[in-house]
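User: Hey, my collaborator sent me this sequence without any context and asked if I could get a structure. I don't really work with proteins. Can you help?
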Amino acid sequence: MSWGRVGDVVLATGHLKQLRRWFHPRPVWFLGRSHVKPVVEPFVDAFLSFPDPSEAETESGQAASLERVVNQSFRYVVADIHTFYGGLFTLDSLLTALQADRRFLYEGYHLGKDLAPERPYPAGYEIVPTNAVTDDSGAEDDGCHILDHNVHYIRQVLAQCGVETADGERWRPDLGHVGSGTAECRRFGIEPGEYVAWQPTSANRRKDYPISHWAETISAFPDQQFVALVEPGKASDLDRTALPDVRVIEIELPGAMRLIREARLFVGLDSGLSHIAAALGKSTICVCPDSHLGYFFPYPRSYGYTNLRTVFHPDFRSCRGCFMTCRHEPLTSTVTRGALCLRTLPPRLVIDAIRAAL
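Assistant: No problem. I've predicted the 3D structure and written it out in C-alpha cell form, which is a compact way to encode the shape of the chain:
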C-alpha cells in the first residue's frame, strides 16, 4: 500500500519488482494513487487505486476497488514509508479496515521534533523503527536518503516474514519496462536524441524554480531544442512569452516517460520526472531545494548513478532537512513564492551543469 506520488513509487521499484519472487506463489496486490499505475503495474498482479481525499467526489470505480480490498483477507499488508508522515493519518480508517495475518508500517523517514511531535499509529500494525542516521553532515551516503530507508524497512519486514535476501543487496530503481519513444517523437515532430527534455513545474509549487530563471538558463543554449513536458491542460499555466523558443508538449505520464528515454538530456526539478529520468539511465540535471537535500536528491553514491547531477544553492546547505519550514522567512513567503534556497539559486549554476552534461 503506497500513499506516495510518482517519484516516491519510482524509488520503490527496486524492491517492488522482487515481491513476486519473495512471496511466490502468492499474488501481489498494489493499492496506491491512480497516476502511479504506469510505474508499478508491470511488477504486480493487481493494481487498485484509492481516491485522493482532496478530490470532492469519489468515482464509483475507485469506491468499488476499495470495497474489494477491505473485503479481501491478505497474508501480509505492507504500507510503504510514505503512508505515515507528520503524525497525521489520512488513511487511518482504511488501514484499520484491512484484514491480514500481519500488518507492517514504517515509523517515518523524517520525524523532526518540529514536524512530528506526536506519532499516533493505527491499531494492529507492527511498527518498524526508522533507520538510524548517525551522520548529519549532508554527505551523499549518510543514510537519510529514501533509498536507504526503503532497504532498511523492507529488510526488516522480510525478516519478520521469514524471507531471506542476499546480504548487502541493493535494490536500484528499475524502469526497464518503459519502451521506445520513437512513435511519440514522430507524433510531435522531434528527432530522437536531438532535444533536451525539460520539466518546468511540479505538483509542489514550493519546489518550482522561477520561470524567469528558467528563461535565462535556456537562453544560454540557443542551439539546443528544449521540449517542455507538462500534464494535459497545464500548458496554459506557462508564461510562453518568456519561453518563445521552447516546444511545449502536453502528455500523460506513459508518453512522457518514453519521450524522456529518447531525449539527449533531461533537466528537471525535485520531482517524479527527474527520478524517472535517472532510473532510465538518462543524463539528468535536477534543480533541487536544499530543504530536501539528501532525502530525494542526490542519490547515495553506493547506488552508482553517475548519470545524475543535483544543482542546489551552496549557501543554504547547512540548514538542509527543514522540509520547507524555513528559518529565514515566514512560512507564508515559502508557500506563496517557493523555497528561498531555490528561488535565489543563480541560473549560472544550472547553466554550468547543463553545459557540462552536454
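In plain terms: The first strand starts at residue 29 and ends at 32. You can pass these C-alpha cells on to your collaborator as they are.
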